[in-house]
Design a protein that fits this description.
Layout lengths: L5 E5 L14 H20 L5 H4 L1 E10 L10 E10 L3 E9 L6 E13 L4 E2 L4 H9 L8 H8 L4
Length: 154
C-alpha cells in the first residue's frame, strides 16, 4: 500500500445479523457504501462532492474471511483507491474490528464517474485524479485475483 489508507467506523447493528448470528452478507455492501460516503468527503473535500457530481458503482466483489458478529464496538473499514482509469477507479476495502489484525472481509468496488445531465460516463477531472492519487495503493487480495493469475475462470 503506497498511498494513505482511510479508516471509517461503521456500527454493527443487531438487525444486521442473520439466523446464524453473523453479519448478513448484504450488510457488508451497506458498510462499504457508508464508509465510501465518508471517505469521499475526506478524499475530495467538502466543497466538491463526487456523489453530487455523479458516480456509479458498476462492480463489487467481497471475500468473506471470518464471521463478523454483533459487538458494541463498531467495525472499521480501511479503504484506498487501488486502480485509476480514465473514467473509472477501484476502491479496495478491508473490514476489521478496531485494533485487531483479523480481517473479516476483503472487498473491491469499481466506480465510474458519471455525467448526470447527459446520462453517460465522463472522464475523471484533474481534481478527482489528484485526490485519488493521494490514496492510490495496491489492490486488495481477492480470491478471484489469485484464480486470474493462475489462468482459471470465474
Amino acid at each position: 500500500m503506497a498511498g494513505e489508507t482511510t479508516v471509517v467506523e461503521v456500527p454493527v447493528r443487531w438487525s444486521d445479523l442473520d439466523a446464524y448470528g453473523h453479519v448478513n452478507n448484504v450488510q457488508y455492501l451497506r458498510y462499504l457504501e457508508e464508509a465510501r460516503v465518508y471517505a469521499f468527503r475526506q478524499w475530495f473535500g467538502q466543497d466538491r462532492s463526487l456523489l453530487e457530481e455523479g458516480v456509479l458503482v458498476v462492480r463489487s466483489e467481497i471475500d468473506y474471511l471470518a464471521p463478523l458478529t454483533f459487538s458494541y464496538e463498531p467495525a472499521v473499514v480501511e479503504m484506498w483507491c487501488s486502480r485509476l482509469g480514465a473514467a473509472d477507479f477501484d476502491v479496495a476495502y478491508v473490514v476489521r474490528k478496531p485494533g485487531s489484525p483479523q480481517a473479516y472481509a476483503h472487498a473491491e468496488s469499481t466506480l465510474v464517474t458519471y455525467d448526470l445531465d447527459r446520462e453517460r460516463p465522463r472522464r475523471l477531472g484533474d481534481h478527482e485524479r489528484a485526490s485519488l492519487r493521494r490514496v492510490l495503493g495496491e489492490p486488495v487480495r481477492l480470491r478471484s485475483h489469485a484464480r486470474e493469475r493462475r489462468g482459471g475462470s470465474r
